[in-house]
Design goal:
Helix content: 40-55%
Domain Glycosyl hydrolase family 81 C-terminal: 1-136
Keywords: Carbohydrate metabolism, Cell wall biogenesis/degradation, Glycosidase, Hydrolase, Polysaccharide degradation
GO biological process, one term: cell wall organization
Mean pLDDT: 92
Catalytic activity: Hydrolysis of (1->3)-beta-D-glucosidic linkages in (1->3)-beta-D-glucans
Number of domains: 1
Low-confidence stretches: none
Number of strands: 2
Enzyme class: hydrolase
Distance between the termini: 26 Å
């Protein structure tokens, strides 16, 4: 908006707020192998947080069990925007995250709507393969 109005101060403010949001998402929601915030057992079994409370974290979501890793990934990717690639800029982590999430995707095609979000992240490092996988989906979640 700052660019549209020619307001350099607003551009600076928006850039700063975006940087803070990216850093906080990567710190609190992304669970990398070297994570020191969460217990080692949680880090071993998770790549993203499902729900972050004031005093605890969960692997579940309000509407999905912990086993549906593809849905947890999707919640962290929504909405897919140009800045999503910046939020998920650690390609090694993204590869681990995609591999982790794909282990929980249901085999029946009627429940594959959340796969599109997994493939959106896969496109960061395997564009053609991800595009073909998205084209093969029978449905997409919105």
């Amino acid at each position: 908006m700052g660019s549209a109005y020619g307001d350099a101060d607003l551009v600076s403010l928006g850039s700063t707020l975006a940087a803070f949001e990216i850093q906080s998402a990567q710190t609190w929601w992304h669970v990398k192998g070297d994570n020191k915030i969460y217990a080692p057992r949680f880090v071993k079994n998770n790549k993203v947080v499902g729900i972050l409370w004031s005093r605890k974290r969960d692997s579940i979501l309000w509407f999905a069990p912990a086993e549906r890793k593809d849905i947890r990934l999707g919640i962290q990717v929504l909405p897919i925007l140009p800045i999503t690639e910046v939020v998920f800029s650690d390609v090694d982590y993204v590869k681990e995250l995609v591999k982790w999430a794909l282990t929980s995707v249901p085999k029946n095609r009627t429940e594959e709507g959340w796969k599109g979000f997994v493939y959106a992240l896969e496109a960061i490092y395997k564009q053609k393969q991800a595009l073909n996988e998205v084209r093969d989906l029978s449905s997409h979640d919105d």
